Amino acid sequence: MPKNQQVILKQHPEGEITADHFDVIQAELPELKPKHFILQNHFLSMDAGFRQWMNENAGDGYLPGMQIGSAIQSIVIGEVVESDNDDFPVSSIVLARTAWEEYSLLDGGDLCLLLEVDPEMELYHYVGVLGTTGLTAYFGLFDIGQPKQGDTLLVSTAAGAVGNVVCQLGKKAGCRVVGMTGSDEKCDWLKTEIGIDATINYNADPLCDQIARTCPTGVDIFFDNVGGSQLDAALQNISDNARIVLCGAMSQYENNSPEPIYNSWPLITHRARAEGFMFSDYQAQYPAAIKELADMMKSGSLKSFVNIYEGICSTPQAFSDMIGGTNRGKCLVKLI
User: Is the pTM of this model over 0.70?
Assistant: First the structure.
Protein backbone atom coordinates (compact mmCIF):
# COMPACT_ATOMS: atom_id res chain seq x y z
CA MET A 1 0.00 0.00 0.00
CA PRO A 2 1.39 3.47 -0.85
CA LYS A 3 2.78 5.46 2.05
CA ASN A 4 2.89 9.14 2.93
CA GLN A 5 6.43 10.26 3.64
CA GLN A 6 6.72 12.87 6.39
CA VAL A 7 9.54 14.84 7.98
CA ILE A 8 9.27 14.73 11.77
CA LEU A 9 11.12 16.40 14.62
CA LYS A 10 13.55 13.81 16.01
CA GLN A 11 14.85 15.98 18.83
CA HIS A 12 14.44 19.54 20.05
CA PRO A 13 17.45 21.62 18.96
CA GLU A 14 19.55 23.42 21.52
CA GLY A 15 21.25 26.19 19.61
CA GLU A 16 22.16 25.55 15.97
CA ILE A 17 19.78 23.27 14.10
CA THR A 18 21.11 20.61 11.73
CA ALA A 19 19.65 17.94 9.48
CA ASP A 20 20.18 15.46 12.33
CA HIS A 21 17.33 17.04 14.31
CA PHE A 22 14.86 15.66 11.75
CA ASP A 23 13.86 12.26 10.46
CA VAL A 24 11.96 11.10 7.38
CA ILE A 25 9.35 8.43 8.10
CA GLN A 26 6.76 6.39 6.22
CA ALA A 27 3.28 7.25 7.50
CA GLU A 28 -0.12 6.01 6.40
CA LEU A 29 -1.88 7.84 3.59
CA PRO A 30 -4.65 10.03 5.00
CA GLU A 31 -8.23 8.90 4.43
CA LEU A 32 -10.76 11.45 3.22
CA LYS A 33 -13.15 12.69 5.91
CA PRO A 34 -16.44 14.56 5.51
CA LYS A 35 -15.96 18.24 4.59
CA HIS A 36 -12.21 17.68 4.14
CA PHE A 37 -9.90 17.39 1.14
CA ILE A 38 -6.57 15.72 0.44
CA LEU A 39 -3.76 17.87 -0.91
CA GLN A 40 -0.88 16.33 -2.84
CA ASN A 41 1.96 18.66 -1.99
CA HIS A 42 4.19 19.84 -4.83
CA PHE A 43 6.54 22.24 -3.02
CA LEU A 44 7.51 22.69 0.63
CA SER A 45 8.57 26.15 1.74
CA MET A 46 11.61 26.55 3.99
CA ASP A 47 10.73 29.46 6.30
CA ALA A 48 13.02 30.67 9.08
CA GLY A 49 10.12 31.83 11.23
CA PHE A 50 9.05 28.23 11.92
CA ARG A 51 12.41 27.54 13.59
CA GLN A 52 11.28 29.10 16.88
CA TRP A 53 8.41 26.60 17.29
CA MET A 54 10.88 23.70 17.15
CA ASN A 55 12.44 24.57 20.51
CA GLU A 56 11.53 22.68 23.65
CA ASN A 57 8.68 24.40 25.53
CA ALA A 58 8.03 26.59 22.49
CA GLY A 59 4.58 27.78 21.54
CA ASP A 60 2.60 30.97 21.75
CA GLY A 61 -0.74 32.44 20.81
CA TYR A 62 0.04 32.04 17.11
CA LEU A 63 1.20 28.41 16.90
CA PRO A 64 1.82 25.59 19.40
CA GLY A 65 5.31 24.23 19.82
CA MET A 66 6.31 21.24 17.69
CA GLN A 67 6.61 17.99 19.62
CA ILE A 68 9.16 15.22 19.16
CA GLY A 69 7.77 12.70 16.69
CA SER A 70 5.36 15.17 15.12
CA ALA A 71 5.48 16.29 11.49
CA ILE A 72 7.11 19.68 10.96
CA GLN A 73 4.68 22.49 10.21
CA SER A 74 5.30 24.92 7.38
CA ILE A 75 3.82 26.39 4.21
CA VAL A 76 3.17 24.16 1.19
CA ILE A 77 1.55 24.38 -2.21
CA GLY A 78 -0.21 21.47 -3.82
CA GLU A 79 -3.10 20.09 -5.83
CA VAL A 80 -6.37 18.74 -4.44
CA VAL A 81 -6.62 15.05 -5.40
CA GLU A 82 -9.69 14.05 -3.34
CA SER A 83 -12.36 16.29 -1.89
CA ASP A 84 -15.56 16.35 0.12
CA ASN A 85 -15.34 20.12 0.47
CA ASP A 86 -17.15 22.23 -2.12
CA ASP A 87 -14.80 25.17 -1.56
CA PHE A 88 -11.75 23.09 -2.57
CA PRO A 89 -12.69 20.90 -5.56
CA VAL A 90 -10.42 18.30 -7.13
CA SER A 91 -7.62 19.80 -9.28
CA SER A 92 -7.62 23.06 -7.29
CA ILE A 93 -4.23 24.55 -6.41
CA VAL A 94 -4.00 25.44 -2.73
CA LEU A 95 -1.47 27.29 -0.57
CA ALA A 96 -1.70 25.94 2.97
CA ARG A 97 -0.02 25.77 6.34
CA THR A 98 0.37 22.08 7.03
CA ALA A 99 3.09 19.47 7.49
CA TRP A 100 6.24 18.57 5.62
CA GLU A 101 4.66 15.55 3.95
CA GLU A 102 3.59 14.25 0.57
CA TYR A 103 -0.17 14.26 1.24
CA SER A 104 -2.13 16.40 3.71
CA LEU A 105 -5.70 16.04 4.98
CA LEU A 106 -7.19 19.53 5.40
CA ASP A 107 -10.56 21.05 6.24
CA GLY A 108 -10.02 24.45 4.61
CA GLY A 109 -9.69 26.28 7.91
CA ASP A 110 -6.70 28.13 9.34
CA LEU A 111 -4.46 29.15 6.41
CA CYS A 112 -5.80 27.56 3.23
CA LEU A 113 -5.82 29.76 0.16
CA LEU A 114 -7.39 28.67 -3.10
CA LEU A 115 -5.13 30.07 -5.82
CA GLU A 116 -5.81 31.31 -9.31
CA VAL A 117 -2.53 30.33 -10.92
CA ASP A 118 -1.34 32.42 -13.82
CA PRO A 119 -0.37 29.99 -16.62
CA GLU A 120 2.63 32.21 -17.40
CA MET A 121 4.05 31.63 -13.91
CA GLU A 122 5.90 28.59 -12.57
CA LEU A 123 4.00 27.03 -9.67
CA TYR A 124 6.89 27.44 -7.23
CA HIS A 125 6.59 31.22 -7.43
CA TYR A 126 3.38 30.87 -5.40
CA VAL A 127 5.39 29.81 -2.35
CA GLY A 128 8.01 32.45 -3.11
CA VAL A 129 7.59 35.92 -4.54
CA LEU A 130 3.87 35.34 -5.22
CA GLY A 131 3.32 33.47 -1.95
CA THR A 132 3.99 33.96 1.72
CA THR A 133 7.48 35.33 1.09
CA GLY A 134 6.43 38.07 -1.30
CA LEU A 135 3.26 38.84 0.66
CA THR A 136 5.27 39.24 3.86
CA ALA A 137 7.61 41.69 2.13
CA TYR A 138 4.74 43.52 0.41
CA PHE A 139 2.46 44.06 3.41
CA GLY A 140 5.29 44.73 5.85
CA LEU A 141 6.87 47.37 3.65
CA PHE A 142 3.79 49.12 2.30
CA ASP A 143 1.39 48.84 5.24
CA ILE A 144 3.82 49.40 8.11
CA GLY A 145 6.90 50.90 6.44
CA GLN A 146 4.85 53.28 4.26
CA PRO A 147 7.77 54.20 1.97
CA LYS A 148 8.03 57.63 0.40
CA GLN A 149 10.21 58.88 -2.45
CA GLY A 150 13.70 59.53 -1.11
CA ASP A 151 13.34 57.53 2.12
CA THR A 152 16.35 55.57 3.33
CA LEU A 153 15.29 51.94 3.71
CA LEU A 154 17.59 49.65 5.71
CA VAL A 155 16.95 45.90 5.39
CA SER A 156 18.46 43.11 7.50
CA THR A 157 19.13 39.66 5.96
CA ALA A 158 18.79 41.53 2.70
CA ALA A 159 19.95 38.55 0.63
CA GLY A 160 17.35 36.26 2.17
CA ALA A 161 13.95 35.25 0.86
CA VAL A 162 11.95 38.15 2.29
CA GLY A 163 14.83 40.61 2.43
CA ASN A 164 15.67 40.61 -1.27
CA VAL A 165 12.00 41.18 -2.18
CA VAL A 166 11.80 44.09 0.29
CA CYS A 167 14.90 45.58 -1.34
CA GLN A 168 13.37 45.33 -4.81
CA LEU A 169 10.02 46.77 -3.72
CA GLY A 170 11.81 49.56 -1.89
CA LYS A 171 13.74 50.54 -5.00
CA LYS A 172 10.54 50.50 -7.02
CA ALA A 173 8.95 52.81 -4.42
CA GLY A 174 11.77 55.34 -4.83
CA CYS A 175 13.73 54.58 -1.67
CA ARG A 176 17.48 54.64 -1.19
CA VAL A 177 17.97 51.00 -0.21
CA VAL A 178 20.74 49.76 2.08
CA GLY A 179 21.04 46.01 2.65
CA MET A 180 22.74 44.26 5.56
CA THR A 181 24.15 40.78 5.11
CA GLY A 182 26.94 38.59 6.47
CA SER A 183 29.56 38.38 3.72
CA ASP A 184 31.26 40.46 1.05
CA GLU A 185 30.06 37.94 -1.56
CA LYS A 186 26.43 38.55 -0.62
CA CYS A 187 27.07 42.30 -0.57
CA ASP A 188 28.30 42.07 -4.17
CA TRP A 189 25.27 39.96 -5.12
CA LEU A 190 22.88 42.53 -3.64
CA LYS A 191 24.48 45.28 -5.69
CA THR A 192 24.77 43.42 -8.99
CA GLU A 193 21.62 41.26 -8.97
CA ILE A 194 19.20 43.30 -6.85
CA GLY A 195 20.60 46.72 -7.72
CA ILE A 196 20.44 48.31 -4.28
CA ASP A 197 22.29 51.51 -3.44
CA ALA A 198 24.61 50.36 -0.66
CA THR A 199 25.43 47.33 1.47
CA ILE A 200 26.73 46.61 4.96
CA ASN A 201 28.62 43.48 6.00
CA TYR A 202 27.61 43.17 9.64
CA ASN A 203 30.64 40.95 10.30
CA ALA A 204 33.06 43.74 9.37
CA ASP A 205 33.42 47.04 11.26
CA PRO A 206 31.21 47.89 14.27
CA LEU A 207 27.68 47.78 12.91
CA CYS A 208 26.41 50.98 14.46
CA ASP A 209 29.28 52.92 12.89
CA GLN A 210 28.72 51.29 9.49
CA ILE A 211 25.04 52.24 9.53
CA ALA A 212 25.91 55.81 10.51
CA ARG A 213 28.35 56.11 7.59
CA THR A 214 26.04 54.46 5.07
CA CYS A 215 22.86 56.25 6.18
CA PRO A 216 24.15 59.77 7.02
CA THR A 217 20.66 61.32 7.09
CA GLY A 218 19.28 58.54 9.27
CA VAL A 219 17.20 55.44 8.67
CA ASP A 220 13.60 56.25 7.71
CA ILE A 221 12.46 52.62 7.47
CA PHE A 222 14.13 49.61 9.04
CA PHE A 223 12.78 46.27 7.85
CA ASP A 224 14.00 43.93 10.56
CA ASN A 225 14.27 40.18 10.01
CA VAL A 226 16.91 39.56 12.68
CA GLY A 227 16.35 41.37 15.99
CA GLY A 228 19.06 41.44 18.65
CA SER A 229 22.18 43.52 18.10
CA GLN A 230 21.25 44.43 14.51
CA LEU A 231 17.96 45.93 15.66
CA ASP A 232 19.79 47.71 18.46
CA ALA A 233 22.33 49.23 16.05
CA ALA A 234 19.62 50.35 13.65
CA LEU A 235 17.66 52.07 16.44
CA GLN A 236 20.71 54.22 17.20
CA ASN A 237 20.55 55.57 13.64
CA ILE A 238 16.86 56.21 13.01
CA SER A 239 15.49 59.49 11.72
CA ASP A 240 12.51 61.44 13.03
CA ASN A 241 9.22 59.58 12.51
CA ALA A 242 11.05 56.42 11.47
CA ARG A 243 9.09 53.21 10.90
CA ILE A 244 10.53 49.94 12.21
CA VAL A 245 8.94 46.90 10.59
CA LEU A 246 9.34 43.91 12.93
CA CYS A 247 9.15 40.92 10.60
CA GLY A 248 11.48 38.31 12.10
CA ALA A 249 14.05 37.60 14.79
CA MET A 250 16.50 35.14 13.26
CA SER A 251 19.22 35.99 15.76
CA GLN A 252 16.98 34.80 18.58
CA TYR A 253 15.61 31.52 17.20
CA GLU A 254 18.73 29.56 18.17
CA ASN A 255 19.74 31.71 21.14
CA ASN A 256 19.02 30.21 24.56
CA SER A 257 19.65 33.64 26.11
CA PRO A 258 17.79 36.15 23.92
CA GLU A 259 19.44 39.54 23.56
CA PRO A 260 17.54 42.49 25.02
CA ILE A 261 17.07 45.80 23.23
CA TYR A 262 19.34 48.32 24.93
CA ASN A 263 18.59 51.37 22.81
CA SER A 264 14.84 51.95 22.98
CA TRP A 265 15.27 55.64 23.88
CA PRO A 266 15.64 56.74 20.20
CA LEU A 267 12.12 55.43 19.59
CA ILE A 268 10.89 58.14 21.93
CA THR A 269 13.14 61.02 20.96
CA HIS A 270 12.62 60.44 17.23
CA ARG A 271 8.87 59.86 17.59
CA ALA A 272 9.38 56.54 15.81
CA ARG A 273 7.00 53.62 15.47
CA ALA A 274 7.92 49.93 15.76
CA GLU A 275 5.25 47.43 14.76
CA GLY A 276 5.17 43.68 14.35
CA PHE A 277 2.89 41.78 12.00
CA MET A 278 2.08 38.38 10.52
CA PHE A 279 1.38 37.98 6.82
CA SER A 280 -1.80 36.07 7.72
CA ASP A 281 -3.25 39.34 9.06
CA TYR A 282 -3.91 40.36 5.45
CA GLN A 283 -5.72 37.34 3.97
CA ALA A 284 -8.54 39.43 2.50
CA GLN A 285 -5.95 41.40 0.51
CA TYR A 286 -3.98 38.42 -0.85
CA PRO A 287 -5.54 38.22 -4.34
CA ALA A 288 -4.94 41.88 -5.19
CA ALA A 289 -1.40 41.79 -3.80
CA ILE A 290 -0.53 38.59 -5.66
CA LYS A 291 -1.77 40.09 -8.92
CA GLU A 292 0.30 43.24 -8.37
CA LEU A 293 3.42 41.20 -7.59
CA ALA A 294 2.81 39.01 -10.66
CA ASP A 295 2.48 42.07 -12.86
CA MET A 296 5.81 43.33 -11.52
CA MET A 297 7.44 40.00 -12.35
CA LYS A 298 6.04 40.04 -15.89
CA SER A 299 7.32 43.57 -16.44
CA GLY A 300 10.78 42.58 -15.19
CA SER A 301 10.74 45.00 -12.26
CA LEU A 302 10.64 42.18 -9.70
CA LYS A 303 13.01 39.21 -9.85
CA SER A 304 12.66 35.80 -8.25
CA PHE A 305 15.67 33.99 -6.81
CA VAL A 306 15.10 30.39 -5.72
CA ASN A 307 17.12 27.44 -4.43
CA ILE A 308 15.23 24.21 -5.16
CA TYR A 309 16.10 20.94 -3.41
CA GLU A 310 14.73 17.71 -4.89
CA GLY A 311 12.72 15.14 -2.93
CA ILE A 312 11.33 15.04 0.57
CA CYS A 313 14.48 13.37 1.92
CA SER A 314 16.40 16.56 1.10
CA THR A 315 14.14 18.65 3.37
CA PRO A 316 16.24 18.42 6.58
CA GLN A 317 19.36 19.62 4.75
CA ALA A 318 17.42 22.31 2.89
CA PHE A 319 16.10 23.77 6.14
CA SER A 320 19.51 23.58 7.82
CA ASP A 321 21.15 25.33 4.85
CA MET A 322 18.50 28.05 4.83
CA ILE A 323 18.85 28.77 8.56
CA GLY A 324 22.64 28.73 8.22
CA GLY A 325 22.58 31.39 5.50
CA THR A 326 23.92 29.19 2.72
CA ASN A 327 21.31 30.31 0.21
CA ARG A 328 20.44 33.56 -1.48
CA GLY A 329 16.75 34.16 -2.06
CA LYS A 330 14.03 31.58 -1.43
CA CYS A 331 14.64 27.96 -0.43
CA LEU A 332 12.13 25.27 -1.52
CA VAL A 333 11.83 21.51 -1.67
CA LYS A 334 10.24 20.03 -4.80
CA LEU A 335 8.21 16.87 -4.28
CA ILE A 336 6.65 16.53 -7.74
Answer: yes
